[in-house]
Specification:
Largest interface: A-B, 62 and 61 residues
Structural class of chain A: mainly alpha
Radius of gyration of chain B: 23 Å
Shape of chain A: flat
Number of domains of chain B: 1
Number of helices of chain B: 21
Oligomer: heterodimer
């Protein structure tokens, strides 16, 4: 049994059912007068049917015996987890705290994942945000969030 | 004569100092993106798109187009020297390019790759110039039926050419279409799947989705791996191929250019398919096929000319029909729209400065790439030594700033991160992002044209088959699906027959 296809297929099936439900609420219409949910409904239906086929193939398949954990075996998945959490925290507090402080903290963390010397981490983060600020904010006039400090 | 006049007009725009600068920046950045494994032209165009907001539409498209075809030049450098393709269209160049480098012939391999790219890229632009005007006149006759059928053909090609399971690719197309429906309905203006969130009323932006899937997703995948590259320690010399090298590769160059040009035009085709097919063709017709894979110079010349020719010709459907034939150009399509320019049959009339300016800049860009690339090869080699641990934080930072500056909204940063995680999981669960992105970009066009076509033909679906262009296009799509499905069905029947025979009396 291919658990990758089984779980992803079930997930997509759930999505397709939700989409079809939403499409019906919007109005699928008829062929001579298709509604706003027309393409949504038919895309959802094909998506759902294919998800069922994928789940069925995963359940009936004999060859692939991989389990989910195999995809992360002997890999540094912790790096990914830390990065994703950091990115979400970054986006959550970006407007409140501001671009410079948040980006400095994020860069320190991301550089630290490579395990260089501490001064390289901090220095690299400082140089990176300084250059980013000069290029994007000053030269290209991108409006970056100022945050609570106002700069 | 009219074309020549228009071309001269285009050069008068492309040769303006600011446009020359954008062409230069695009070409250099494209080469850099091509050289660095991990970040392809798709992610790079998406990341750099927001920084073009403050420049003119012509300058922005010149730069992003330069980035696209520049990546084709750069991709071969890593393929030849490190055996790691800088981007997908250079995968096949590894086979003979790296072997040539191992035999001490890195110089001629890089040389023929650069000259081949230049010749094919320039000829591709000539073809684009000659084909675009008549095709855009023909495209004026296209109605919703024809547009719908063309989009279906494009999506069929993308799923047909998928690396993995075709079924999963079709699923990704459906998912892309679903995502493209988020926002206001183009006909009734009623909100669809917005959950009352104001940021979703304009739909999900192409740039955050593409940056997430191809930029953040790629970084996340690479963060958990330890990549070791084996660089060939040889002096790169004799970059100008010898007379023998030219003699061996001239027909491969010519065939690669032709194959690339026609495959570039096809919806769903493009540089990747062109490079693989031209390599296969060369090997098949070669008098010494056994040398392929062991350092045959034709094995470098053919795919490199094909991918550059295809990169040029793939602008034909985008500029004349308004249909992006591949994922990179679908992001470029988004760039056109963001800058208030609609690619399609009216582009030549409504924005001749953009059309002829971009086209002329491609001639200049190809010359720039040739002049820049050969002397700069040692610099690109040095860049390859930059550690990933410094590169990935920078890519993430570019993605964040890019996503935020689209609308000055942190919502787009969240969208990008979410699609970054989705892109990462796609790689784990063996799904492809390319069909999703193409369907996502073409989704609104498909929705609008399908519904308009059905309204016009009073719900008769058969109308798609009674119009010649639409019928031929849909017929091609059906043929493609059949060629993929029939062998699989036959194999299943064979297996079933064998199992019945074994269990028989």
């Amino acid at each position: 049994m291919n658990r990758h296809d089984l779980f992803s297929g079930l997930f997509w099936l759930g999505i397709s059912i939700f989409v079809m439900h939403m499409a019906q609420g919007l109005g699928v219409g008829v062929l001579s007068n298709p509604g706003p949910g027309f393409v949504l409904f038919w895309s959802g239906l094909i998506f759902g049917v294919l998800s069922i086929v994928l789940v069925a193939k995963a359940l009936l398949g004999k060859g692939d015996k991989r389990i989910l954990a195999d995809s992360w075996k002997s890999l540094k998945w912790q790096n990914v987890l830390v990065t994703v959490i950091a990115l979400f925290l970054y986006a959550s507090f970006l407007m409140k705290i501001g671009f410079l402080i948040m980006t400095f903290a994020l860069m320190v963390l991301l550089y630290a994942l490579g395990k260089p010397k501490p001064w390289v981490t901090v220095g690299g983060a400082f140089v990176t945000i300084s250059l980013a600020y000069v290029i994007f904010h000053i030269a290209l006039q991108v409006q970056l969030p100022r945050g609570m400090l106002g700069w | 004569m009219e074309t020549l006049n228009s071309l001269l007009y285009g050069f008068s725009i492309a040769l303006q100092p600011n446009n020359l600068f954008f062409c230069f920046v695009g070409s250099v950045l494209g080469t850099l993106v091509g050289v660095l494994p991990g970040l392809g032209p798709v992610g790079a165009i998406a990341i750099l798109l927001p920084i073009t907001f403050n420049i003119s539409a012509t300058g922005a498209i010149i730069m992003l187009a330069g980035l696209y075809y520049g990546a084709m030049y750069g991709g071969s450098i890593t393929s030849i020297l490190v055996n790691i393709p800088g981007e997908a269209a250079s995968v096949v160049t590894c086979m003979d390019g790296y072997q040539m480098a191992r035999k001490g012939r890195a110089g001629p391999a890089l040389g023929i790759s650069a000259f081949g790219s230049f010749i094919a890229g320039t000829l591709g632009v000539v073809g684009l110039m000659l084909f675009a005007v008549p095709l855009s006149r023909l495209a004026l006759k296209f109605g919703p039926h024809e547009y719908f059928s063309l989009i279906v053909l494009g999506l069929t090609f993308v799923t047909y050419l998928a690396h993995g399971s075709m079924m999963k690719s079709v699923m990704m197309c459906c998912f892309g279409l679903i995502l493209s429906n988020v926002g206001l309905d183009p006909i009734t203006s009623s909100p669809r799947i917005t959950f009352g969130i104001m940021d979703l009323f304009d739909g999900i932006g192409i740039a955050p989705v593409a940056m997430g899937l191809f930029g953040v997703g790629e970084v996340l995948v690479n963060l958990e791996r330890t990549i070791t590259t084996e660089m060939v320690h040889t002096k790169v010399r004799h970059l100008f191929p010898s007379r023998l090298d030219w003699a061996a590769s001239k027909w491969a160059l010519a065939r690669g250019t032709l194959v690339g040009f026609f495959l570039g035009i096809l919806p769903g085709g493009g540089p990747v398919l062109a490079s693989f097919l031209s390599y296969g063709l060369e090997k098949r017709i070669s008098k010494h096929p056994e040398e392929f894979g062991h350092g045959a110079i034709e094995g470098v010349a053919a795919p490199e000319s094909a991918n550059n020719s295809a990169a040029s010709s793939s602008f034909i459907p985008l500029l004349t029909l308004g249909i992006p034939p591949n994922v990179s150009l679908s992001i470029l399509f988004g760039a056109f729209l963001i800058h208030g320019v609609t690619p399609g049959p009216f582009l030549i009339k409504s924005n001749p400065d953009v059309f002829w300016g971009v086209l002329s800049s491609m001639y200049i860009g190809n010359v720039m790439l040739l002049v820049l690339n050969l002397p700069l090869i040692p610099l690109w080699v040095q860049l390859l030594k930059v550690s990933d641990k410094y590169l990935y934080p920078l890519i993430l930072l570019f993605c964040i700033i890019g996503a935020y500056s689209m609308n000055n909204a942190v919502f787009d940063v969240f969208i990008m991160i979410i699609f970054g995680v989705v892109g990462y999981l796609f790689r784990k669960f063996e799904y492809e992002g390319a069909p999703l992105i193409l369907a996502f970009v073409l989704g609104p066009l498909l929705d609008l044209n399908l519904r308009q076509a059905l309204l016009i033909s009073d719900g008769r679906f058969v109308a798609f088959f009674t119009r010649p262009i639409s019928a031929v296009t849909l017929g091609l799509a059906v043929l493609l699906v059949s060629t993929a499905a029939i062998p699989a069905v036959m194999k299943k029947l064979q297996t079933y027959k064998e199992s019945v025979d074994e269990d028989g009396p």
